[in-house]
């Protein structure tokens, strides 16, 4: 990521983010996350399943979900060590959702993160199992590897994440998305449902699980949840815009797929300019939720701005 953040203060009581160097922060966090992910899965017999899991898990990506989890845990007064296993688990779950999403039965994509998709390299059977393996291991990893956190918080994290991933979250969003394919009359309400679940639920869980691990109050969890839901929707709106305006090289995946598939997108409802305006408004609302957290909120504020500034 190369974005040098040029943020603006939202209100007088929110600290200015103009001096916060987001690219350095993200680069440092990516190193921490990459190293933890690399160590999280060893290749043992039967080798090919572990190789397939590692192929997608270590294929790059922004590592946004783990970084959000670490940043939120620290915002509330926790440490990187407390949140690192959950941060890795979030990336394992995100990666498995991408592997399954790319399958011929779903989006049928050949490229992801600039590389051939898992099923293109290992075959559909192993790709399905690699996704299953990553999903199960994510929960095992939180339960077995979290240190220095009271057990009741770990239990809450596992419950929150389980809900975010299942039929009440990602899976439900994906089902409605598949049902809506090729339907030009999808309502804005349905589109919002799809993205609040398919993309928003895991981003929300990334933030809220970081907060839970650090022992955040209910009120702070609610505010951080609202922050995450707003940036989640903004993230998707920007994704839809980039699908139209960015190249395959910039995206690291097939560009223009939404148009090709006649998919309902935010630009198809609002056009590109209004979509960008809506995304900016959501980012402003998200940052307002951080009011009162002080300087520790700078990473989350800058990440919110980064979502609308990104080009891939
Ligand atoms: C979760 C049990 C379970 C099954 C999967 C396939 C499926 C159900 C859900 C689809 C979820 C999906 C693919 C949502 C899209 C999320 C999204 C916006 C991905 C792109 O995220 P980035 O930009 O990607 O963070 P990188 O590569 O940077 O990590």
Would you write up a description of this structure?
A two-stranded antiparallel sheet has the order 1-2. It is built from 15 helices and 2 strands. The longest helix has 28 residues, at 218-245. It is 68% helix and 1% strand. A hairpin with a 2-residue loop joins strand 1 (111-112) and strand 2. It has a single domain, classed as Orthogonal Bundle (Farnesyl Diphosphate Synthase), CATH 1.10.600. It starts with 21 loop residues before the first helix and ends with a helix. The radius of gyration is 19 Å and the shape is globular. Geranylgeranyl diphosphate is lined by residues 61-62, 64, 94, 97-98, 100-101, 106, 113, 135, 165, 170-171, 174, 198-199, 239.
Please provide the count of β strands.
Answer: 2
- Class based on secondary structure composition and strand pairing: mainly alpha
CATH superfamily, please?
Farnesyl Diphosphate Synthase
CATH architecture descriptor: Orthogonal Bundle
Distance between the termini: 9 Å
Largest sheet: 2 strands, antiparallel
């Amino acid at each position: 990521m190369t974005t040098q953040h040029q943020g603006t203060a939202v209100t007088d009581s929110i600290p200015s983010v103009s001096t916060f160097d987001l690219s350095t922060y993200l680069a440092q966090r990516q190193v921490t996350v990459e190293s933890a992910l690399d160590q999280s899965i060893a290749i043992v017999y039967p080798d090919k399943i572990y190789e397939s899991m590692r192929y997608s898990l270590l294929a790059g990506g922004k590592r946004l979900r783990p970084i959000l989890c670490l940043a939120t845990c620290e915002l509330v007064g926790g440490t990187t060590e407390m949140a690192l296993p959950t941060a890795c688990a979030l990336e394992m779950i995100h990666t498995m959702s991408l592997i399954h999403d790319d399958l011929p039965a779903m989006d049928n994509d050949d490229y992801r993160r600039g590389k051939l998709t898992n099923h293109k390299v290992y075959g559909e059977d192993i790709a399905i199992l690699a996704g299953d393996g990553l999903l199960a291991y994510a929960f095992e990893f939180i339960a077995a590897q979290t240190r220095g956190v009271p057990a009741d918080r770990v239990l809450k994290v596992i419950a929150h994440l389980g809900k975010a991933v299942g039929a009440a979250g990602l899976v439900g969003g994906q089902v409605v998305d598949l049902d809506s394919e090729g339907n030009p009359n999808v309502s804005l309400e349905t589109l919002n449902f799809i993205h609040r679940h398919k993309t928003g639920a895991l981003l929300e869980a990334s933030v809220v699980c970081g907060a839970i691990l650090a022992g955040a109050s209910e009120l702070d969890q609610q505010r951080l949840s609202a922050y995450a839901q707003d940036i989640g929707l903004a993230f998707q709106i920007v994704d839809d815009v980039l699908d139209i305006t960015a190249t395959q090289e910039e995206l690291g995946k097939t560009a223009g797929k939404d148009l090709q598939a006649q998919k309902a997108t935010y630009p198809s409802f609002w056009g590109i300019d209004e979509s960008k305006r809506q995304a900016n408004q959501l980012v402003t609302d998200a940052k307002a939720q951080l009011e009162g957290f002080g300087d520790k909120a700078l990473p989350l504020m800058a990440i919110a701005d980064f979502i609308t500034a990104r080009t891939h």
